[in-house]
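Input (structure):
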């Protein structure tokens, strides 16, 4: 199994747009990395999950996620948006940090473990502060991987 997140799954300058455009941009990275086999199916699964409940968290965080038959292995993509993206957070703040969690259909609880580990880190200002200031995708991937697996 590959690393959960790698530099090629990180975009520190997401294009401005709505959440669909931002999710598509990150999802295309997952396709290029061979972790998603069918972009449109994956996006439909993300959209279905978003329709159940918004994935925005207070403090400028978006965590779109889903299980999908198009996902080959548990994967985490990360993007930073200078414009901010509305993921429906209760505080109304647009997300500048976006984590795309992709899990294979029937892949057990892997994505929930990642989601829980990420949620524990997101309440720490030092974690989000580091992600808001990091300038290198490899450094961002390494930092996230270390924190989420700790």
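Output (sequence):
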């Amino acid at each position: 199994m590959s690393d959960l997140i790698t530099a090629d799954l990180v975009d520190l300058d997401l294009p401005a747009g709505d959440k669909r455009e931002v999710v598509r941009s990150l999802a295309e990275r997952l396709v290029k990395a061979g972790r998603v086999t069918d972009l449109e199916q994956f996006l439909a699964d993300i959209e279905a999950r978003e329709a159940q409940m918004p994935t925005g968290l207070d403090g400028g965080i978006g965590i779109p996620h889903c299980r999908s038959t198009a996902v080959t292995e548990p994967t985490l993509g990360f993007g930073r948006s200078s414009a901010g993206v509305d993921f429906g957070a209760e505080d109304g703040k647009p997300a500048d940090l976006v984590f795309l969690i992709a899990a294979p259909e029937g892949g057990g609880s892997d994505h929930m473990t990642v989601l829980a580990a990420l949620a524990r880190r997101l309440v720490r200002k030092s974690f989000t502060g580091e992600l808001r200031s990091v300038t290198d995708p490899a450094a961002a991937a390494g930092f996230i991987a270390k924190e989420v697996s700790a």
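Notes: The first strand starts at residue 10 and ends at 11. The two ends are 18 Å apart (CA to CA).
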